[in-house]
Amino acid sequence: MTSRDAVLVAATVAVGLMAGLFFAFSVAVMPGLAKAADRTLVDAMQRINAAIQNGRFLLVFGGSLLLCAGAVVLCLPDGGRGPLPWVIAATVLHLAVLAVTFGVSIPLNDRLDAAGDPGGLADPAGVRERFEAAWVRWNLVRTLLCTGALGCLGWALVLSGRAAAEAAIRTGHM
Questions:
Q1: Can you give the pTM of this predicted structure?
Q2: Which of 22, 24, 46, 168 could cysteine-pair with 143, CB 3.0–4.6 Å?
Q3: Distance between CA 130 and CA 138 in Å, rounded?
């Protein structure tokens, strides 16, 4: 396995973890919380927002972009053939995920946290209304973008494997 392939595999795993996280929120966490009382949703999301700020998450969240960028650099010698266009597409899609996260999701989370202790809220329904629908909608966008990035990286791996097999056949090392 080449260093390029190792970085491609690592980028694919990291982006897959992020896509899975966004997907889990889209299909399980938020639909489950949609059935909860207003204070419960506010409390749960405030707790999730606090819990997700940890080193393991940040390593994968930030590392996935760095790995994608590293894969682009390692694919450059191919001159635009092979996996490079797909790795660039994955990186652009992942940058869009980060733009949504920093431009929409985090500000929504910060406003939710700024609402204060859910037990003391005068209008928990209003706090929920200003948060839930927008957060769910934009998380679906992140899910689709990140899943697209994962698909691009998966195809890049296929193309990289094909190129390696073709090179081995040409050089008689198969």
A1: 0.90
A2: 22
A3: 13
